[in-house]
Specification:
With 288 residues, the chain is mainly beta. It has two domains: 117 residues, Porin (Beta Barrel); 157 residues, no CATH class. Helix content is 4%, strand content 53%. The chain contains one helix and 21 strands. A hairpin with a 4-residue loop joins strand 2 and strand 3. The N terminus is likely disordered.
């Protein structure tokens, strides 16, 4: 899922004129929240949440001649069934009408949604928006706090899926990637889902995130202190692998860590340099 999120975000970043809005309404007796992200080329991504299970679902669609169709994104990255259709959709509308499809065997249900937030309209300098995140844990979902006000300290709101109650707010800086800031995984291999927020891109393929570990006893999160570039977590071997490269990939290092008492302990490091004559990377000494 993480790779999917990164690919989507890179696609989104290649466009200008992004419009992002937050809508709420009802489908029969269920409350629904739909957040839509549209580019100037009319590529559309969206996340919706129903109070039936409070599990965010990622959608993708297209906007053509004011007709918006949103389809579910399957776990294998393919487009699935149509979930929403809007025959008269404009990003500047305050209210939108359309149809919701629970599945292909059920008749379309009419929906009426009201715009509660227009993230990219100005002036909204002092407004604070809750941006629903595409990834969630088994029992919790996440919203990042975002504002155009540079004095605002961003953060993450964590909600209980069953009760829809806010259970924790964490102040944390992040790199804004709309619905794709939060990732969910077991980072310390204790069989409890944790979460991270994307922090930054660096040279080449290097990235960094901030990792938060969930306490089994009180269900609260604390910052882990895990650091490094492009960390990958292997639940089978219970190791963390860090990949770091520089100089357009000429130099690459690979470091492997074990987690002991919730700390990263280095157990192995290998370094490689690209040999132009051999046209491949050759292992050599590490120069820290």
């Amino acid at each position: 899922m993480t790779k999917l999120i990164i690919v989507f975000f890179l696609i989104l970043c290649s466009f200008s004129g992004i419009s992002q809005a937050i809508y709420t309404g009802k489908i029969q007796n269920s409350n629904i929240e739909l957040q839509i992200l549209a580019t100037d080329t009319m590529n559309v991504f969206a996340v919706y949440l129903s109070n039936l299970d409070n599990t965010p679902r990622l959608l993708r669609g297209s906007l053509k001649n004011d007709s918006l169709i949103l389809c579910i994104i399957n776990t294998d990255r393919t487009l699935g069934d149509t979930v929403f259709t809007f025959t008269d959709f404009k990003t500047n509308y305050d209210n939108i009408n359309g149809n919701y499809y629970a599945d292909t065997t059920i008749k379309a249900l009419p929906i009426y949604l009201m715009k509660n937030g227009d993230v990219d309209s100005y002036p909204v300098k002092d407004s604070v928006f809750e941006i629903l995140q595409a990834e969630s844990s088994k029992d919790q979902y996440f919203k990042i706090l975002f504002s155009h006000n540079h004095s605002f300290i961003p953060g993450i709101n964590i909600y209980n899926k069953k009760s829809n109650a806010l259970i924790q707010t964490i102040q944390s800086y992040y790199y804004y990637r709309e619905f794709f800031v939060v990732s969910v995984e077991d980072y310390n291999f204790d069989k409890v889902e944790d979460f991270s927020v994307f922090e930054s891109y660096y040279a080449g393929a290097n990235t960094s995130s901030i990792y938060y570990l969930r306490n089994k006893k009180n269900n609260q999160y604390t910052e882990s202190g895990f650091t490094g570039t492009s960390l990958q977590f292997d639940a089978r071997s219970k190791t963390i692998t860090e990949y770091n490269q520089c100089c357009a990939g000429k130099y690459i290092s690979k470091s492997i860590y074990k987690v002991k008492k919730n700390e990263m302990v280095l157990i192995e490091k290998n370094c490689f340099e690209f040999d132009e004559e051999l046209n491949k990377h050759i292992e050599g000494a590490c120069h820290d």
